[in-house]
Write a structure and sequence with these properties.
Radius of gyration of chain A: 18 Å
CATH superfamily of chain A: RutC-like
Number of domains of chain A: 1
Distance between the termini of chain A: 28 Å
Order of helices and strands of chain A: HEEEHEHEE
CATH architecture of chain A: 2-Layer Sandwich
CATH topology of chain A: 60s Ribosomal Protein L30, Chain: A
Helix content of chain A: 25-40%
Number of strands of chain A: 6
Shape of chain A: globular
Oligomer: homotrimer
Chain lengths: 172, 172, 172
């Protein structure tokens, strides 16, 4: 009986290690380096877990150098540059999610992604901008990364960031 | 005992059939024809279920002829035309929900509806626009269709659609 | 056995009373008076509960005198006035939440807060506006009030209200 339990623990340990290293390896393959999450500066936090869901705060396109990608898409930035901002934002979201979970292999499903594109009144390509985020999520998580999504425009965002994105994630 | 089980199965079968046909009949009475959901064109999907909740992507006012209702409310469209766009969007949402559930009688509650109205800076009647969606949901589902709601304005939406609406739905 | 049950009931009754009076006392200490929620005027409601989550509708800055705080931040209102509008809105949200729950001591966690600031295209201080809401939530609930948050700008809101805020709350 003791041996049986030992074997079960060993097996579980193994499978967890493999899964963890799979997502970490995938991130490395994609050349994605997660960030050290900054400390919250106000009376809110970057992620809250309730039951099996993690709600992530709206994140901006914070680059590795500590600066945000700023500007209005359709005026200061092209659609492709907006998509790159959405990709950078996705990395920030995954960084906060990892800080919350410890291990991204505990992600069961990216449930919902909402993204706001800081843009001109005439800009119409919000989905193409948001693909920068969606494509990264599916590259990292495969089918588990396929989410429901709402792509929106807005006339202004905090600090004039180019995009702001939030997520709801189902976890184990 | 066998007979009892048979009766239970028969009864359950009957009640499911009745419920299903009730919603279908109600849709027919209202003259609402659901759409064949289009295939996803990017790395996201129209609906994700987690536990008893279904999260629906932001939908636009896609008409039966395959075209969206476009324009800014307060400029190209009146409030009434915006409300009609919200009604059309609700039909699209129910079409995607039916594709996810198989049967709309499995809807236990429309929990939350968020709607963005593509409008001028001076437009103030977003709730009247969103009533086009809310009224249809309550016409179809009765009290189960009464939802929490957020009605918002925005300076631009994908493809210049008039409204974009998402929902969270509790299902059996 | 009967005595044991009686003691359990008494103890539970006591702890509920204490917790209830704690939040009520905290509100009084902060000089916050909750409002009598108005009746819904359309086919939606102010709050829907599903499982342990309560989804609250988008609320505006309705003052005790029955008028909303209106205007665009960055044009008709300063950032500080916007933050006051967000604070007033938080009181309205708590009023609707109390109407739903009966007792705010049943709040386990403010999970998510989304806020839209009615503002000019150049306004960048949406987070400072939203702090008016977040600070009140933490003043009332302590650590349970720390939420994930998304602060957004928009070109227009219903009735030209200054801010619109919605919440997801985990309850006992």
């Amino acid at each position: 009986m003791k041996h049986l339990i030992a074997i079960i623990f060993l097996t579980c340990g193994f499978s967890v290690s493999f899964a963890q290293s799979d997502i970490d390896k995938r991130l490395a393959e994609l050349g994605i380096e997660l960030q050290e999450p900054s400390a919250p500066v106000a009376n809110y936090v970057k992620a809250v877990r309730t039951g099996n869901l993690v709600y992530l705060s709206g994140h901006g396109p914070l680059k590795a150098d500590g600066n945000n990608i700023e500007g209005k898409v359709g005026k200061n930035l092209t659609t492709a540059e907006g998509a790159e901002a959405a990709r950078v934002t996705a990395i920030g979201l995954l960084s906060s999610l990892k800080a919350e979970l410890g291990d991204l292999s505990r992600v069961k499903r990216i449930v919902k992604v909402n993204g706001w594109v800081n843009c001109t009144d005439k800009f119409k390509e919000q989905p193409q901008v948001m693909n920068g985020c969606s494509d990264l999520l599916v590259a990292v998580f495969g089918d588990k990364g396929k989410h429901a999504r709402t792509s929106l425009g807005t006339n202004s965002l905090p600090g004039n960031i180019a995009v702001e994105i939030e997520m709801v994630v189902e976890v184990e």
